[in-house]
Amino acid sequence: MNKKMIVGVDLGGTTIKLALLTVDGQFIEKWEVVTDTSNSGEKIPLCIAYAITEKINSMNGSKENIVGIGIGAPGPVRLEDGLIFEAVNLGWKNYPLKEILEKEAGIPVVVDNDANVAALGEMWKGAGNGAKDLVMITLGTGVGGGVIVNGLVAHGKGGAGGEIGHITVKPEEGSPCNCGKEGCLETIASATGIARIARDKVKNSKLETKLKYYYENNNLTAKEVFECYSNGDQVALEVIEEVTKYLALGISAVANTLNPEKIVIGGGVSKSGSVLLNPLREKFNQYAFTPVRNSTDISIATLGNDAGVLGAAYLVKKFVLKDVN
Ligand SMILES: [Zn+2]
To answer: Which SUPFAM superfamilies does its entry note (predicted)?
Structure first.
């Protein structure tokens, strides 16, 4: 076993996903470890280094075969030196992840924000299909965003470039967002936002709706909304109309600014597929500038949970191996 390999790491608040890949992005091994966030996350770099060493040893391999470790981390990142400005759910503030992990592992490390990394993964191996101008929006518990222009991630001055989830789409009477503002896209198009809108509508609607049953059983999530929508439920339709309206508003603003080749929608909510995509595209066509509407494609992400580790591996390919343009 002497071929060159890359380690891709998707660092989350509850689990760390790891993968060993060939330099072409073929999976060799995929595994997970629990994230130890005790003592302000001080054990995390050691856990990552240990997980990699253990895996290499179990394969009778050598660390010499690993050309680099790419990591997607939650929070704004400074690409040059792999500093995490802040990762609230890991307990990190101004944390020099690259420096610490390179010391622990003895392998070059490249770090970027997790949403940016997912965008790179989809660009390289997923729905992006190699498009160098791509915007990815991840609709999960929150709303993440990654903007790639001509193959490069837009980080901006403070590492917060591409934070599409915090575009204010509802300037009046918006719900409070985790970021401290009100009316952010995240408060509407995240799984949490969709469930909240559904609860509000159920409370105020006189229409017959199955959502009421889920609500009364404390079981009303985004999933039930999409399910009821597919079955023609009128209140679920109202919820999806509202969600896709604001999502299209945010996306079209980004698209009118960048005219990307692809907009890729990922995250748990995107599993609803065409149920989300069709009304979204209809409203996008209404809000987007005509040349943008005619040239920007919207599609659902294809990599699922693998986008993070693949994008992280791409960081190594680009910045350590320098074999992408
Ligand atoms: Zn916000």
So the answer is: Actin-like ATPase domain
